[in-house]
Amino acid sequence: MRGHPLEETLSRHERRIACFHDRHAGERCVIIGNGPSLLRTDLTRLRHVPTFGLNKIFLHVAAMGFAPTYHVTVNPYVMAQSREGIMSLPGPKFFSHAGIPLMPETDDVVFVRDIVKKEFSPNLCRGWLLLHTVTFCAMQVAWWMGFSEVVLVGVDHSYQAPHDPNRLVTSEAADPNHFHPNYFGPGTAWQLPDLAGSEEVYRMARAFFEADGRRIVDATVGGRLAVFEKADFKTLFPAGGATAS
Questions:
Q1: DSSP per residue over 100-131, as a string?
Q2: pLDDT (tens digit per residue) in 48-102
């Protein structure tokens, strides 16, 4: 409803979103997941590559030696827990509209509306499909920016957790499912993953990219996701900075 504070904010941010359209047309980017495999991945090789960080990646910035180019967070629990850490990251930060009451509306913040229709959204001004995993939202942002190739790292697609998708639980011990033991450390609320649902939207993203001559490849070290073509991280990003095509 026009005139409503939420709608006024989202309409304002449509203008910000428009500025990112095709900003990286024809380029390669990397979406950095948060799995334990990041600890076995030499992310310093990505220092000069456009990257998307997700959720609590700020916990790994010191080890990486750089901050991601862009950041995406959609879960309100993560935003509420990590507002200061997320906002400490430089560069544009994309949040779901659930973040409007939780995150400051600074110049580097972009709020994106959620769409209802269950399809990959090529037009970020209209919104993104927020379903199952933040990684899927990052893929929609990457599409909007014009990237022709998206490389996944740290998307392990494997959890030591009960199979009860989306149930809110409280962690009782160090986190074995992410790159840092305090990612969802003791006493932290988090929602259990929906791996089957994630695979569904990943297939949607793969089909959309490939129909336009673009591609998503998975260079996660030891990852268990079987939706995308596999690639070797060290081959794609050799030491010294030269990248393979």
A1: TTTS---TTEEEEPBP-SSS--S-TTT-B---
A2: 999 999 999 999 999 999 999 999 999 999 999 999 999 999 999 999 999 999 9
